[in-house]
Amino acid sequence: MESVMEGYAEYYSENLSQNIRRGNYDSALELKTLEQIVLGLRKGPDGRFEIDPATAPIVRRIFEEYAAGERAKDIIARLNEEGYRTSYGNLFNKNSITGIIHNEKYIGVYQYKDFRVEDGIPAIVSRELFQKCQRMSERHRRSPAEKWATNFLLTTKLFCGECGQPMTGDGGTSGNGHVHHYYTCNGRRVHKCKKERVKKEWIEEFVLSQLTTLIHSDEFIEEVTDRVMEFQSREKDRSALRSLEKRLKETEQAINNLLSAMEAGIVTVSTKSRLMELEAERSRIERGIACELIEQPELERQQVVYFLEQFRKGNVKDEGYQTFLVDTFLNSVYLYDDGKLVLILNYTNENTKMTLPLLENVLTGKEGICSQFTWFAAPNLNIRTILKTGRNGSDFCI
Length: 398
Fold this sequence. Notes:
Blueprint: H1 2-16, H2 18-29, E1 41-43, E2 49-51, H3 56-67, H4 72-81, H5 94-101, E3 110-112, E4 115-117, H6 127-141, E5 158-160, E6 167-173, E7 179-185, H7 186-189, E8 198-199, H8 200-215, H9 218-235, H10 239-263, H11 269-295, H12 301-309, H13 319-329, E9 330-335, E10 341-345, H14 356-363, E11 387-389, E12 395-397
Parallel strand pairs: 5-9, 10-12
Antiparallel strand pairs: 1-2, 3-4, 6-7, 7-8, 9-10, 11-12
């Protein structure tokens, strides 16, 4: 339900955040930092980027070592060992190095959405060094280790029903040279589980077919909508929004009073200064109201139904749609060697996973283990399991 509301909030926010975006564009035209935190750069007195003498040498070193052929993991290990940290104070990792290597800010490019200025930022490295690093990165990407690279849709979602370990992407080449892709249990990789690997195409096609059937069910749409409306009614807290709306009304009244005084001929330095302060305060309050409406949109029932029905219009053959469908509705999948398949739908936005022992309790009908919303909440005995039969007579449940 939170996933549905978050998705609709994103859809709804486009109209509510125009003032915020307009303010960001105005700042971008002046090449302001927009409060971005970038290693090697800092916010100058004029609000623009300037080189940070304390951290810029770290950035140059990363580019130089990477261009010289050093492996990313070796660069990471040395930086962390020597006590260097990212712009957020964390240890360096692969994503940190990749983000730095591909960040055009380091060659002086300022960009905000479609607004781009080539020399809008002081450059830390030369364009020649930057391009050399891009070529090196492309070479690494095309290395032999990537010959099995493909989009494994159920990564982080598919688990072994025998040992509970994740099942991750794998590949192999047959005698005739054809490449085949599989999901293999991580326990099997270290010889601790005998779970047979499963063909990627079959398991992904089957899971997608079940999710597609689900979202085309009017009963499911109505049930989710009922729960969303209940959730919204229970969780709704508009006190902050009401407070901001009251402040906005008071501020606008104060502005009107000042304008009336100025029209009557009462114009001083103080009145002008106060008017500017009130107008700035009004802008801040309006942005606050927009943020509150984005974070806590008050949804009508038909809006929720409309949002859910949009999932029916996607092309199930499109990889982007497949990913969106899986990320929105699917929490995890457990696959057993006897053909049993268990699909667990999303119930929270906290990236929690149902453990194998807890799942076994649900399937065997043990009581008092979890609520219908989260597995760590107070017990609720009204847990509903839908048993179905798939192809070849294999059982699965949702």
